[in-house]
Amino acid sequence: LAAGRARIAVDAMGGDRAPGAIVEGALEAARELGQDVVLVGDSEVIRRELDRLRADLPVQHASQVVGMAESPSDALRRKRHSSIRIAFELVKRGEADGVVSAGNSGATLALGMVVLGKLEGVDRPALASLLPSLEGRTLLIDVGANVDCRARNLLQFGLMGSLFLQHVLGVDKPRVGLLSIGEEDSKGNELVKRANELIRAGSLNFVGNVEGRDIFLGGADVVVCDGFVGNVCLKLAEGLAEAISRMLRTEFEGSLSSMAGYLLARGAFGRFKKTVDYSEYGGAPLLGINGIGIVSHGKSSPKAIKNAIKMAADFVRRDVNRHLTAGLKANAEMVAKAVAAGAEIG
Amino acid sequence: LAAGRARIAVDAMGGDRAPGAIVEGALEAARELGQDVVLVGDSEVIRRELDRLRADLPVQHASQVVGMAESPSDALRRKRHSSIRIAFELVKRGEADGVVSAGNSGATLALGMVVLGKLEGVDRPALASLLPSLEGRTLLIDVGANVDCRARNLLQFGLMGSLFLQHVLGVDKPRVGLLSIGEEDSKGNELVKRANELIRAGSLNFVGNVEGRDIFLGGADVVVCDGFVGNVCLKLAEGLAEAISRMLRTEFEGSLSSMAGYLLARGAFGRFKKTVDYSEYGGAPLLGINGIGIVSHGKSSPKAIKNAIKMAADFVRRDVNRHLTAGLKANAEMVAKAVAAGAEIG
Crossing angle for the helix pair A20-33 and A302-317, nearest 10 degrees? Predict the structure, then answer.
């Protein structure tokens, strides 16, 4: 694909603020970034939004919508014409190069895997999330695609996360850490202890076990964990950030001098909020599928959608999946040996 | 034991600020709360601290100290005369009623279990931690005693956490949530799905699955998880709070008006910091051992130690272990039935 020609299919129906915020975000990507997009969903609804914005963008009709609370298996079986599915089918038919959805994330994961299949050498695709850290950012992988994992899955998550950072975000030799409850190799549950051995034997820039605190304080560029732990972490961080911000607000409302202080300090708060704002990154890439899928937050703003579309397009242009396939292949022999040697049982 | 006569053995050698902060905290507990304490550790060192503070408290000599980085198994095998061990032995001999240690937490867990044994009906003792929430506080259990768990362990953690909140902190019918990655019963890994069934069958005030965000936003009084997940959560929360506070500080240093704002708002920050300050709670109770052990943070201040001693004494006075034993017994038959029915395999 020529640079700039990546075409991104955007699920216009998914997310708490769909279709309005989604269509607006796609429009910003088209206008500000010159990005080629196609909006997927109920064409009447989408046309109405475009009219409201006095704009025009390509639309692909999809007659069904997966609800935010629907189970992925229901979405797979009963919604053959959902906007998420049609978006992935555009990629499969070569009519688009990547998908962005802020809709039901479980359904997006499942449909991405079912419609596009997995990359060669990938046992389990994984969802990666960029989180702010004092050093800039940390990629946490997996944040929810695989709740029960084997050690080899964690190794592959590390590989995929590392190659993504390297090729999409230009991080040189990303440092990969394994999320555990102590830095020593002997610390952790059975899964993590086995994964530590396996990752250490691989070709990654492995910095060993890291702890929950390191995700935000820095020390590793990629932090590897199973999807249950990663999802708990993601939501815990969201909840804590919200709780801290609400507690601070309550405190500031307590007295006139604090209120005055708050007003003076507002600029600092604004800049801080931007630092921890996930919409700067736009979405979480689903790594390991034979195509490109970005899962955006359900509450995505137009800006988050625009940035997710940008991430998907960069993903295409940098040909990340070719790098992933090559990287996985280079490590496959080592994994096979380790498995044969019994390092991987669980 | 008569009210007020609980005697707490305090490990004077454990923690980053030992012995100074520990001896000071014990002294505050004695003077401000009329608490009966005994300081355990190198008697010469402790006497020197007491002299410095112009105070006197009972001292029990212990010739060894477990280092903060030592493995629990080394502490068990090689340190027969460690201050932590001697403290638990005082409880075993009936010369003290509970232990507080800010030292090596793994060693404290291991020694508490080995020296005192488990309560009848407890398969695995667990470490519980009180975290601040918008509703007040949430008890997270287990935060590190058991990295690989079975469903029945999680049920028992829920029972113990619930009884602790009820009898030590006076929470009426504590709401128990199971930490998962979605509120539906079907969400979670294998362990959590089985635990959900088991806890639902029990006699707890079970509110179902909760997510990471609920720990800080509220919705459950007790949040149950395995010790790996709980420890990751605890350290993640610590790291995120630290990162947010450092990012805010950097922002405030950026301009004169923000600095002025910060100075005006300082009171609000101070009150906020107090809300999230673990030293208000003092420590994490080790629930399920045949005795009382409170694990304090390695960085404990005198105030944190004082509050941990108060928690241990309340634990004794409210006779929590009798309530725990009775509660576990009342649920034992249900667990046995569920296990026999195959609800518990993993």
Answer: 50
Tell me how long chain B is: 346
Look at residue A148 and give its three-state secondary structure: coil
Question: What is the spatial distance between Cα B286 and Cα B103, in angstroms, rounded to a whole number?
Answer: 14
Question: For B203-259, how does the pLDDT look when each residue is reduced to its tens digit (9 = 90+)?
Answer: 899 999 999 999 999 999 999 999 999 999 999 988 888 888 787 777 777 777 777
Residues of chain B contacting A275 with CB distance shorter than 8 Å = 247
Is A205 in CB contact (< 8 Å) with chain B? Answer: no
Q: What is the pLDDT of residues A32-63, one digit of tens each?
A: 999 999 999 999 999 999 999 999 999 999 99
Nearest Cα neighbor of B267 from A240, A263, A270, A262 is A262
Q: Give percent above pLDDT 90 in chain A.
A: 68
Selected for mutation to probe chain A from B140, B149, B240, B251 (highest A CB count within 10 Å) is B240
- Distance separating alpha carbons of residues B292 and B288, to the nearest angstrom: 9
Distance from CA of A139 to the nearest CA of B (A): 14
- A283–chain B nearest CA distance, Å: 18
Instruction: Let me know the angle formed at the C-alpha of B345 by B343 and B346, rounded to the nearest 5 degrees.
Output: 125
Nearest to B315 by CA among B323, B306, B305: B323
Alpha helices in chain B (DSSP H): 20-33, 43-52, 72-78, 83-92, 105-116, 151-168, 190-201, 214-217, 227-252, 256-275, 302-317, 320-340
| Per-residue pLDDT at B2 | 43
CA dist A206 and A221 (Å) reads 10
* pTM summary value: 0.90
The 3 state secondary structure assigned to A73-85 is: HHHHHHCCCEHHH
Interface contact B298, partner A, CB < 8 A: no
pLDDT band at residue A278 under the 50/70/90 scheme? low
Mutate to test the interface with B, among A154, A187, A229, A259 (most CBs of B within 10 A): A229
User: Which residue from A minimizes the CA distance to B187?
Assistant: A147
Residue of A nearest to B242 (CA): A217
Predicted local distance difference test score (pLDDT) of residue B1 = 41
Strands A205-210 and A136-141: unpaired
Reported as a single tens digit per residue, the pLDDT across B260-273 is 777 777 776 666 66
- Kindly report the nearest CA distance between residue A52 and chain B, in angstroms: 36
A251 with B271: Cβ contact below 8 A: yes
Give every CB contact of residue A73 below 8 A, 6+ residues apart in sequence: A110
What is the distance between the terminal CA atoms of chain A, rounded to a whole angstrom? 41
Laid out side by side, the sheet with B205-210 consists of B59-61, B36-41, B7-11, B98-101, B293-295, B284-287, B126-133, B136-141, B222-224, B175-179, B205-210
Q: Which of residues 58-97 of B touch A (CB under 8 A)?
A: 71
How far is Cα A252 from Cα A273, in angstroms, rounded to an integer? 17
Please indicate whether, in this complex, the C-beta atoms of A235 and B272 are within 8 angstroms of each other: no
A positions 213-272 inside 8 Å of B (CB): 213-217, 225-229, 231-244, 246-248, 251-252, 254-255, 257-258, 260-269, 271-272
Query: Distance (Å) from the C-alpha of residue A245 to the closest C-alpha of chain B?
Result: 10
Sign of the CA dihedral with A302 first, then A308, A312, and A313 last = positive
Separation of CA B148 from chain center: 19
For residue B32, the Cα-to-chain-centroid distance in whole angstroms is 23
Q: What is the mean pLDDT of residues A90-97?
A: 97
- Does residue A34 sit at the B interface (CB-CB below 8 Å)? no
Choose the weakest-confidence range: B124-128, B146-150, B281-285.
B281-285
